Amino acid sequence: MRSGWLFCLLTVLIGWPSIQSSPTIPLNLLARPGSNPAPADLVLTNGNIITLRAPGDRAQAVAISGSLIEAVGDETSIKAYIGPNTKVIDLHGRTVVPGFNDVHQHPFPIYTWDKPYASLELDTVSSMASLIDLLRRKAAITPKGMIIRGSRYNEARLGHQPTREYLDQASTEHPILISHASGHLEAANSYMLRISHIDRNSVDPPGGALERDANGDPDGIIKESAGRLLTHDRSIEPPRPTPEEELDGYHRCFRAMLASGLTSIGDCWTTPAKVKMYQTLVAEGFPMRFNLYIGVDYLDKVLSGEIPRVHGDFLRIDGIKIFHGNSFSGKTCWVYEPYDTINPATGKKDYYGIPPARSQAGLDSLVAKINHAGLQIACHSNGDREIDMVITAYERAQQAEYHPDTRNRIEHCSITNQGILDRLKRDSIIPVFHSYANELGNQLQVYGAKRLAMIMPTRTATDMGIIWAMHSDYSVSRYEPMKRIDGAVRRIAPNGVVIGANQRITVEEAITAFCVGGAYTSHEENRKGRVVAGQLADLVVLGEDPTTVDVAKLRDVPIDMTVVGGKVVWQASDHPVSVAGPMPVGEDGESLIREDEDD
Fold first, then answer.
1. pLDDT tens column, 129-162
2. Residue 262 DSSP symbol
3. CATH number for the domain whose boundaries are 119-239
4. CB pairs under 8 A, 24+ apart, for 191-200?
5. What is the pLDDT of residue 573?
6. Contact in structure between 137 and 130 (CB atoms under 8 Å)
7. How far apart are alpha carbons 141 and 388 in whole angstroms?
């Protein structure tokens, strides 16, 4: 394919733009071209700066002027940039990395427990009894007939799926609907099924399924597109938050992300209403960089210009999010070989997942339409059978109408084989890999040992020179970068099983994928992602060096400071992260509230 060959030629000529294997270059001072030492606005000294300029590259100090890095070097060289008005921060040996870039999230506003539109965060609930108790407590402060929502339940922690017989124990006077950690399954109580007219006569839609009990009645577990069968009756919905409450909820959400070291995020299904919210945040000067992928349902609004294409440092809109296929951790993605588990419907190992609702021809047509507009595509796809279809659609679109350097992405790209990786490299397609084995690894073991060696194939992709990025898919997994780095480096499931030991990567490789690989996905690798002169001064100060700390403690490396555009926007000593309001906690002391919005 022409785009693939052009990229390979450029790679040979100029080298891999982010994770190349080059020797460490001695560093005394690297400054912006043509600049002479002049007093900087901010200087960080006495540090261990992981620059990502090349593998293993380190510096001691950095000078910042305005929003840009002016110079990076040793203590002596950077002293020339300290003037009478320069703010100087002594790092006392602490580690600095570029600001983390989570390229695929689904952010939502944070509200307090007592708000009727607040839903429950269920990922820390570790027993069915605790789940039922929590839902009962929410029902006690919720008017009868109003829906109770929750998200991120984990059946591995609960012991089994929360079918309607369990949810009915929480309330029969409220509709209850909770979503799985994957976001691709839902569990409903009998009240919710009844008002949705879901019963034994309901037919599974293309791309979805209703789980059923021994009598053939829906048991409340609703998979993939079957969720469209649920009622949209507004009478069960709580009152909407005011625009001011919603904006304040997003402030809380993104302030917490700044505290985790995130300085850039990608919203991978942005609605027109959320575009306006992001525009408001940027106009206010909120210190987070947003890259928006507009949901394909709103493609025509982008094509008409109603949703503008934007290429700013704090707001980018130039891509479309589409879906082709189903869930990895939800065990519905479509695969070539059967899952390594007994299909309860047949008693055999003959379950291949749920085929995508869209045919190859339908996918080709959609991709061609987006490609014609010159927009980048971020396509959700998990199963190997699905991924091959996406690659084929990308290839056919580019063969019919070539656009250079589109950097189309495959989101998650979970179950692969060598043939898939070869095609990704040839066609310059960016895989955006999960790193959530440390949270959802128990669910992944149904794919069998052979496939586990090629799921989330970060080691193989790195060794092949494939450009890739990491992400949280929040709220599918936690957004905190150190937790995601732990997942990529150790790949240990909650039950202790290692998920693909051969795909483990180093800490610095994981940081590089987060920062430089993340910037590359949005054509910003020359603007951010490394601690080098001329790039945006987005930095994170860590309390420990993650490249030398005991890997068992990686996820707990503290975030001491976050800098965006040369401004200190968060410090651990000044801004402890908390969410106001009475909130129940789980056995491990974590909050059980996911303050959510109704999209």
1. 999 999 999 999 999 999 999 988 989 889 999 9
2. E
3. 3.10.310.70
4. 192/147, 192/220, 192/230, 192/231, 193/164, 193/218, 193/220, 195/231, 195/233, 195/236, 196/229, 196/230, 196/231, 197/231, 198/222, 198/229, 198/230
5. 82
6. no
7. 48
Return phi, psi of residue 119, to 5°: -110, 170
Among 530, 534, 532, 540, which residue's Cα sits nearest to residue 569? Answer: 540
Provide the pairing of β-strand 95-98 with 48-50. Answer: parallel
Separation of alpha carbons 6 and 11, rounded Å:
9
Residue pointed to by tokens 């040979």: 12
> How many residues would you count in the chain?
599
1/185 Cα distance (integer angstroms)? 37
Q: Which helix (H) or strand (E) holds 396?
A: helix 384-400
CA 242 – CA 251 distance, rounded (Å):
14
C-alpha dihedral sign at 274, 276, 282, 284: negative
Summarize the confidence of residues 347-357 as an average pLDDT. 95
Compute the C-alpha angle 340/343/344, nearest 5°. Answer: 140
What span, in angstroms and rounded, lies between the C-alpha atoms of 64 and 52? 17
User: In angstroms, rounded to a whole number, what is the distance separating the alpha carbons of residues 3 and 13?
Assistant: 15
- Distance between CA atoms of 568 and 14, rounded to whole angstroms? 34
> DSSP class of residue 516?
I
d(Cα 127, Cα 131) in Å, to the nearest integer? Answer: 6
Q: Which residue has the tokens 């695929």?
A: 104
Among 107-116, 528-537, 579-588, which is the least confidently predicted range? 579-588
Contact 272, 279 (CB under 8 A): no
CB contact at 8 A, 325 and 382 = yes
Closest CA to 72 of 208, 54, 84, 85: 54
What is the rounded distance in angstroms from the CA atom of residue 105 to the CA atom of residue 270? 10
Tell me the C-alpha distance between 540 and 262, whole Å. 8
Q: Answer whether 119-239 and 262-530 agree in fold.
A: no
pLDDT of residue 34: 66
- pLDDT, one tens digit per residue, over 262-274 is 999 999 999 999 9
Q: Where are the domains of the chain?
A: 119-239, 262-530
515 DSSP 8-state letter = I
Distances (CA, A) of 243 to 24, 86, 280, 519, 594: 51, 40, 11, 31, 19
CB distance 584 to 131 below 8 Å = no
Q: How many CB atoms lie within 10 A of CB 523?
A: 16
Please give the Cα distance from 529 to 552 (Å, whole number): 26
| Cβ–Cβ < 8 Å for 59, 90 | no
CA 539 to chain CA centroid, Å, is: 20
Closest residue by Cα to residue 475 from 98, 133, 102: 102
Q: Which CATH number fits domain 262-530: 3.20.20.140, 3.40.50.360, 3.30.70.2520, 3.40.47.10?
A: 3.20.20.140
Q: Distance between CA 456 and CA 434 in Å, rounded? A: 6
Contact at 8 Å (CB) between 227 and 208? yes
Q: Is the peptide bond before 472 cis (omega within 30 degrees of 0)?
A: no
Q: 175 is written with which tokens?
A: 């509709």
Q: What is the pLDDT of residues 77-131, one digit of tens each?
A: 999 999 999 999 999 999 999 999 999 999 999 888 788 888 888 988 989 999 9
pLDDT at residue 117, rounded to an integer: 87
